[in-house]
Amino acid sequence: MIKLKDILNESTSFTNWQIPSDEDLRREFRVEHEMKELNYFSDVDEFLEKCKSAKHVLITPAMDSNIQYRSRTKSFDQLLSLIKGYRSYPKYRNEETLKSMYTAFKSNKKMDMPIILKFKDGSMRIFAGNTRMDVAFQLNINPKVLMVKVNKISVDDY
Questions:
Q1: What is the pLDDT of residues 23-57, one digit of tens each?
Q2: Is 157 a domain residue?
Q3: How many independent structural domains does the chain possess?
């Protein structure tokens, strides 16, 4: 019989979310906005300004279910299979970098907050940090994100 104490001991305590640096935000904009030809921000400066004024929000599994474009993988193997389809695989993302992310969470090392876009109609979409969110949820951690307001009406309004 599984005891509540055993379940609680399985969860990882993580308190080290950090705001991404301007350099990292610029890279995320280039990779997630420009390369994917999205039209949520007029330029990188608008994106940086929106990130600076973004709220820091702890995302629960219930909230996560309302965020579009999330993978919600349930295991290391599922997540590895997913990242194998990324353009950054295997040069920047691979099995070793994924393992190191799990280790970083378990060791409470600094981790950049994922970025969620929130639209005027209340809809939300992952912008950056899908993998970090998946790992966090797999380790029973509610991720803290930058909730960036977008002037567009909805996710599909571009």
A1: 999 999 998 898 888 889 999 999 999 999 999 99
A2: no
A3: 1
Contact (CB, 8 A) for 123 and 152: no
Domain-located, residue 2: no
How many angstroms from the chain centroid is the CA of residue 12? 18
Report helix, strand or coil for 112. Answer: strand
| Of residues 134, 126, 129, the one with CA closest to residue 155 | 126
Tokens 């002037």 correspond to 151
Residue 107, domain extent:
17-149
Q: What is the pLDDT of residues 98-151, one digit of tens each?
A: 999 999 999 999 999 999 999 999 999 999 999 999 999 999 999 999 999 998
End-to-end CA distance of the chain: 52
Cα radius of gyration rounded to whole Å, the chain: 16
